[in-house]
Amino acid sequence: MSGAIFAPLEGPGALDSAGGHPLVCPLCHAQYERPCLLDCFHHFCAGCLRGRAADGRLSCPLCQHQTVVKGPSGLPPVDRLLQFLVDSSGDGLEVVRCANCDLECGKQDAETTYFCNTCGQPLCARCRDETHQARMFARHDIVVLGQRSRDVLQKCTLHAEPYIMFSTEKKSLLCICCFRDMQGESRAHCVDLESAYVQGCERLEQAVLDVKALQTATREAIVLLQAMVEEVRRSAAEEEAAIHALFSSMQDKLAERKVLLLQAVQSQYEEKDKAFKEQLSHLATLLPTLQVHLVICSSFLSLASKAEFLDLGYELMERLQGIAKRPHRLRPAQSSKIACDHRAEFARCLEPLLLLGPRWTAGAGGGTNLLAGVSGPKVLVGPSCPSPVGKMLGSPVQKPTPHRSISTKVLLAEGEDTPFTEHCRHYEDSYRYLQAEMQSLKDQVQELHRDLTKHHSLIKAEIMGDILHKSLQVDAQIASEFASVEGLRAVFQEMWEESYQRVANEQEIYEGFSPAL
Asked: Which residue, 25, 180, 182, 433, is most buried by CB atoms nearer than 10 A?
């Protein structure tokens, strides 16, 4: 043979980074000895796999894929293909013996040792000159040992006859005796060696093309995944930077809003404290006056005679009545609760950063922000903002949820004549009228469909025009009603906000009066 099939590794750049030398075991890093093939198509030496099997299963040292093994050895069978390549790669180091004199010829004698392709035997130089110079060996093909032919006919191990046929059914070589022993049906799958070789080469070429296509796709997938890994790393870095930036911005905004809220709380405190102290001072001066007049009244009753009583009593009565009728601020004019709605304010300052929905302010009265005026009305969060901040506002009046609906009949039964009840009555009438029209059109269309199904013809074909005309009218009425409802939506929304604001203010005042009562 010509020598090694696979050249030694020239460096790390000679192979792909993910691969290795095809004849080197990835565990012991030496040439394979009795290579074994696992179900995952990874090869290892039999010695490297010995003792790794457990419960009839062998785990691949590279990919951890499980391979079922049989027999007491706990090893898969030796891969004949890879063993052939290993043996062939070592032909340059083999020691051959001359077929006549048994003279050993090593690698250094490769140029002086010959091989007879006709006899299929190696010959030393002396035996070639002595035994193959006769005329009967004149047509023998004698070449240098390194150039010997690979097409030497092998012989059957059972009959010692050369192989002449190949069974495409059993994928085995056949000699003439093996061919004769086969059944007639099996002989139909036998071809000569040359044809079998050509067919095998074609199939192998197709398999190689498939593997090459898979190899190309795998490399492209690796490049793509490497790019995606880099993109994931870059995206994670960008996201972390964005999180840090947003968090820093949120801290700055919250710090600014915190200062404003504390100023608002301080302003409310100073205003309420001043008002309550002024009222307390007034009541503190009123109480001794009342006590003095009560003492005067008691002393006058005990000391004055009837004449004196009649002379001075009415003056005392007028004085007491004047004191009692004077307006005195006995009740607190405002609530003692200081509320700056900090949750809503913090949420509002974060809206531009978190891209939350718009928030509503109080409607017709032109409500001001809490930070702009201490005594301004509360800011309401509308249903268009699904932020959980609305749940934390602690409003005294719970806003109706979108899932809560009030029956139109109940609204109409309350008897209050408001724009909303008028709208409900008109809407209810329009809805019933349109519903009746739609049911009429539906019945007519069903009747036409029944005629088509039973009679395969339109019995009342003249009503189709009426149906189309009425359908257009109903569609126009629906569009008109929709436009009307959309036009009233903003009006009713403003009315609802005003009513809600009024109830909230009244309940806040009521809660402020409750401790005094």
From this structure: 25
